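Researcher: Next sequence.
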Amino acid sequence: MDPFSVRHEGSRILTNAQGTLQIEVLDPNEELVYMDRRFSSTAYVLQARYQGQDFLYTAMNAGTVHPALGGIPCEFDIGTRTNPPGFAEAALGEYFLKIGVGILEKDNQTYHFFREYPFHEKATTQVEWHDHGALFTQTLTKSAQGFSYAMTVHLELLEHALKLTCRLKNTGTRSFQTEQYLHNFLSFSGHPLTADYTLKFPYAPPSIEIINAPEPPPFDLFVLNGSTVGFNLSGKVPKGMGHCRVLPPAHDSSPNEVIVHHARTGQKLTLRASLPSHAFVIWTDYNQLSAEDFIRLDLDPAEEISFSRFYLFETHSLPV
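Model: Next structure:
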């Protein structure tokens, strides 16, 4: 029986062996990826339900079954710290590489991830569906400015966790540096952003850098208390987005792990990665919070790298 009574268009439901964790994931053959010049069609998870409680914000929270912005989509190179390979060298009308997406045509001078760049070649994504997971394989037949790649993402449902293992290979003739993250739109049991949410880091951040503050009027949304970042709403409803960068101590060697907790439901989600964090950003609006961990990768021609991300789920029976 389908554990989701209503689900998004073009999705599949996967369940772990214990029957306690269900994942709704977009089928890349349906070609319904939201902002397909930005997000990858590999392992695009829309919802995670553990012991009957949802953990992600999805388009369904906004009243539509079309897979719009939400879930945990993967993206490479948003232009803040790294541009997509080949973008800087390309003249207008030439091509650049957007890993996870394909080869795009440059039609402006400054890269912006919201821009609908024309496709030169859309990456081909194939998927093998397994009993408790899936294997996504993405390839290109062309290159852009000598840049190209191949990628696999193995999605596994474990007893208490979702594991995503990415293997990225440089199939071009030039070295590249790239930055990968997952957007991680979170909404525990459908709860919007309140002071019930906290993020606990394995270190005490010396400071947080505010990128955007909600209005009106701007107020101090983010609260740093030792190793925890919380939210100061004080009866206010944020309008617009809050956006901050969490800065680790210099030369920090802590494991790459952040725990998101919701006091009212008792739900916890531990975000863990096998590689060090290059940057950590929190993006919020009234409906959700996004905990975004960025990993930097450097690959020479023919070189490949493998890394994993884990989502560890916990629930507690508390009154809601």
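Model: The mean pLDDT is 91. The chain is about 0% helix and 45% strand.
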